[in-house]
Fold each of these.
Amino acid sequence: MLWGYIQSFITIFLGIFIEAVPFLLAGAVVSGLISEYVTPTWLQRVAPRRPLGAAMSGVALGMAFPVCECGVVPVTRRLYKKGLPVSTGVAFLLGAPVLNPIVIVSTLSAYGWSPMFWGRMGAAFIIALIVGALFHLAEPAMMLQADSDPHHEVVSAPTASFSTVIAPSTGRRRFWLAMASAGDEFLEMAQFLAIGCFLAAGMQVLIPQSALMVWGNHPVYSVVAMMTLAFVLSICSTVDAFVSLAFVTTFMPGAVFAFLVFGPMVDIKNLVLFRQVYRPRAVAYLIVLPLLFTAVFAIAHNVWGG
């Protein structure tokens, strides 16, 4: 019995980690390119300053970058270091995992031009926009970790890294400097991804899915069950639409909708990654606000949407 649990844990852990690593690597590469080619002066000049405009630009950025919930974290952190407003980064962080081109195509392949497709995209857009605008009211120093805040100086002893072995230059060497920075970013974030995958695998072994399935026909409990399942499974948003098809006949539509919206925004593995960018209070807001908005939309659909 114990060996069976251990085997299940190892299989689930490797499955989540192997699925997530390519996207984390892609995010790290984008982060490295930003570190070398995007200047703080340019970013601060083009970034909107009004709450709604700043959040809207973050959502638009998320629709352009093909990164999921794993890859979006290193990109967001790098943009913060360049001076991106907190609200824009939050809107990008929450919107990109659902609204990026790859996920749009995968959701369309799974559901077609159905209300589920439009509901997922529309809800993700609205939640990212509102939460991003709310974060505009906060002071960056109160929300961001010290090494993500461009206004906070951190003095530390030099350490060996990829980027220390390549001198700054132009042209081809500048590109390789960006890739070296990407290597540093990937190695740093991969260890926290492994911790998140470890926790997600442990939760899946300890909480059997059958315990949640009995709530499938209740308008409120079904939403709670599917949001919990999305948080625990930690499935990449590029494939979660196909996974959700398995629950269409056993759970109410609002519950499946909640799985598709909340899971990409907040799950166990990216929760660990959030802590490398945001302070604990900000992480709490990033959990509670999407959770509440998604639950309200999903329950309302179950009760009044038919």
Amino acid sequence: MIRKSRVVVLVLAAVAAGLVLSAAFNLSPITSARFLGDTEKGAASAEPSRMLPADIPGLFKEVSPAVVNISTTQVVRMGRPRIRSPFGQQDPFDDFWNNFFGNVPREQKRKSLGSGFIVSADGYILTNNHVVEKADEVTVTLLDKEEFKAEVVGTDPKTDIALIKIRNGNKLPFVRLGDSESLEVGEWVFAIGNPFGLGHTITAGIVSAKGRIIGSGPYDDFIQTDASINPGNSGGPLFNRKGEVVGINTAIIQGGQGIGFATPIHLAKSVLGQLKEKGKVTRGWLGVYIQRLTPEMAESLHISGRKGALVADVTRDGPAEKAGIRSGDVIVEFDGKTVSDEHDLPQIVATTRPGMKVEVKLIRDGKETTIPVTIAEMEGEPAKRAGGSDLTKGLGLTVQDITPQVARHFEIENRKGVVVTAIEAGSPADDAGFQEGDIIRQVNRKPLKDAAEFRNLSGKVKDEKTVLFLVERGDARIFIAVKNR
């Protein structure tokens, strides 16, 4: 009896310990599935978000009828193959080549596949621009295999977003657009599309990161996810656990596993109305060329902290130049919106209505000032232009005057300044990123005429920790900060 009672006591203790551990680690013997905002009966209202993320089969059944397959056909005109004749330009066998290759088709059809999702009952569909770009024919296939010819309503290459439309007498199922800005890293997401043309599939994963810059365009702001995105998924929706679209699956890294990128749905929502009404997107234009504000540049410009977008140059007769913004200014706020870095400003300006007058807060010479600017319409950036001395022992730069011969060699129009002819390997200038052929226009915000003036200015700044150069490289003007040793 004593042994049995001990066994009973031990069993009860083990059960109690198990319950304590379950509570401590948010575990439960039975996990209730949750979906579409926990509207199912019996779901615990205080259930932690680390439980089973969603009823994935239920989510797929709910939203997949609004996800479509998009196939495109492009007719490419082919010419006769160019064959080099050993007889020179006058080819005695020209008739032979014509007869031999006369049966080669003059036109060839190229086909591609992608995905999309219906956003309204009357047949409007969002997808990627690259899915339908240059297509002569667009075909949309629904989940039930019914096919429709689609028209391209509008495209926006800068954000890689396109709006197409199919016509069906009946009301079509459509998805809800969610809030991608409130999406959190680590949150569960689901990609639905038509990879490899095999039919609808769903993959699950989490948001790995937000605000990714992958070099695809001026408004890069991608959601990175490990939910599998494969060829054919382009243009398909990325859902949150409520069944709302938070992204458009756009890009993958070749050879990478678990690395996919989706365009945030808030970007699509910002252009959707214009695509529907005008077929294109009208954006605001400020007329500045900006770059990252490094700690060295911030020190040279007497700016505390590293927030803001550094103005490297302004466009001649652009809104910024007309308002008085100039090279070296650091924009920290635009129309009441904080500009944290150089990636924030283009998106904020682009969403501003052309003709609107806004307040631009900036830092100039260490002092904060506000300048009113009237925003113009972006029509494609105009041409950018607003307008040897040996330092190997110090910065590691060798420069010389821009002579007529040097100007011709480097195709330089403005001969004010000096051209970099040599850079010492491992020197401060080399570490900062100087290149041969760079044109130095300013030293520490002082305009530069020639090598003699460069020598004079360099002597004045030799004791400073950092020297700030305004450099012209090709059609771009950039600031380069060099640390003195």
Amino acid sequence: MMTTDGLPYWRLSGFYFLFFLTLGAFMPYWSPYLKSLGMNAEEIGILSAIIVFNKIFSSFIWGWIVDHTGKRIQMIRMTSLLSVVSFVFVLLYQDFWPLFIILFIFSIFWSAALPQIEAITLSHLGEKSDSYTKVRLWGSVGFIISVVLLGKLFEQKPIFCLVPVVIFSMALVWLNSLSIPEIKTKLYQPVKTTFKSVLLKPHVISLLVVCFLVQAGHGPYYTFFSIYLEEHNYSSSFIGVAWAVGVIAEVLVYIFIHRVISRFQLRWLMMLTLILGTIRWLSTAYFVDNLLILIFTQCLHAATFGVYHAVAIQYIHREFKGEHQGRGQALYSSVSFGAGLAFGTLISGYLWESLGSMEIFLFSALMSASALVVAFIWLRNPIGFKEKISY
């Protein structure tokens, strides 16, 4: 069995697989489920945003707790179980405000695990942190399987089947967490710099701004892309395939991106993803009815998420070292997948209601172009970063 410094590779990869298997059930089909309950675009935006909004504070708080206790796996097990328990109540309520409260509570627990798994993975990889994607790609595989199978399922079964499917998948995440042993050695040695001093570095601030804007641009995609395709008469099966195409492209990038990261400057890789991101969202807005262009824009997910995330993870890992690592990963999650995604999701709900569906992807293009300006002017490579790494 493959291992990374003592932690079984397949147990860790299994967590990524099941976690993103759950997201593959939830992310593309949650908005159509809410629409089937009679929710309008504004309500869908709010109920989707609340799930990621809590990451702004909860991920960082969980990161602070585990950095000081060292009980990462125990925390992951506890929050994974509480995620299942809290989401079960979605079966019982279909009105806006009860769902708002349930999802608010659920998201506090659901947002806890992934940043800590990221920190554990990178710590065990050590100097080979650019090989992170070899583990993370199994999450993308899980996502692909989920979106394709459920796309076919919802052509035969009602969308109401989504909730029990998600609950079952979350239960598998919790069961997998029980197989991962607690880390007995002290991985995080004290460092001389303070967390605040790292955070206030100008290039770190610019990185976080870029991450915020990138995920703000993804907010309309994650929330309304399925409904957008439904509006243009695509079938549920094709919608699943369209999501899968994007993540398949992401997997292909993950297979070799560690070699690219070891040879090229992170700053230039980030800027490339932002250029391609702007092209992607403009194409999605203007050419959704052109099947070939639509598939091409989905393939750009390889850059707008795959390369972007791999590069951002490297930045965070190289800047927030030692005992700051858990909070560093949590901060990245809070700013990007929390604040950025919540902002983009909320804005897209209001734009859809007031202007129309195409305009939400023009908003995405604006966010990506703004991130490109910030990266070009202020983003720098991590201090001490080498363009080529031997491993």
Amino acid sequence: MAGMLEGLDSIDWARLGHAYGTADDVPGQLRALASDDAGLRGKALYDLYGNIFHQGTRYEATAYAVPFLLELLGNPAAPNRADILGLLTSIAIGYDEQWLPFPLPIAAHREESAGGAELVAQSHDYAPDDLEEDEEVEEYAFLEELSDEDQNRYFAYIAVAAYDAVKAGVAFLRTLLSDPDLAVATRAAYALAWFPEEAADSIPVLSAATASDPVLSATSVAALGLLGSDISEAFLTDAQPLTRWGAAVALAQTHRDTTPPLAVTELLHWTASPDAADERIPFLNGDLSGYAAMAAVQTGPANADAAFAAMLARFGSMSGTASLPVTAAALQLAFPNGAIAPGTPFSALDSRQRQFTSRLAECPNAWLYNGSTFGNFSMMMSAYSLPNSREAMQSFTTT
């Protein structure tokens, strides 16, 4: 590892910000990722997820850290390369559940970021007379003075800058598809899925990777769908279930209402399956059922009833974060117009809406995370003006 990260000290990290203020702690964290001590590496990774990628938000320091993360990734002797690649992909896109089952809308993000560079430059010169010299305070004071529109431009520019910093390494990421470490190769395939502007060069190498290990094959096939490649329906009859899953979600993305019937059948199987999870597949952290449910919605009205029935069947065995994607897909089918009017009685719901609410009232685990009330699930119900606890849902559906 000698000679690694030599350029770290050439950056004025103290002038850059992250979630907790000045980014002068980032160089030490990046160096710790190369440590022989697994504990130090783990803490450094945790810290970087917390400061330059805080709950999905990227900061000015984020893009500056990316070349050094790529440098570490490029050294075969570096430990935890798959974890580093996972951080890089998160930096590029945030959380994939924000976008799936669709590709990343990078063109729209670039439009939203217009004018953001000037705002970031202004933030460097911002020094109000009534505040002491404190970079963290000054940065937040600057943002508070911006309009909501300009704040959106500011953070959109920061996010696109982070995305483009990772995009600069896409050609290198393609070479990792043949990495001897399967976890690295699989995460590389996943990462390539999110760079549609690079699709022309990524599709051939991803296509070659579909003849590999089932985990890499499934991830590559799903990635091809997100990049708009019309994959062969032959993948639907592959001997490996994971590859069939990847083919089904890919074909739903590219074919929508004309998704082949065999792909629809595969999606319904995975949607309803109580044990459809594989953490080796990076999409949705391995929630194959959740991704299949999202993709099933893409196949159009002709398959909506069957897809909805598969989702309701899954409700009985889901819990925790696995509850969110399937429930979101079911909500999309049951409440296509969004939230109902507050105070709407159960009797005023249509048939599919009554099925949805009645089924959730029967499924206690769907409302829980590790045995406790799952706030994210409750908020999802509230967003549709539905009862936000199981007890309230039971009462709602029986009165």
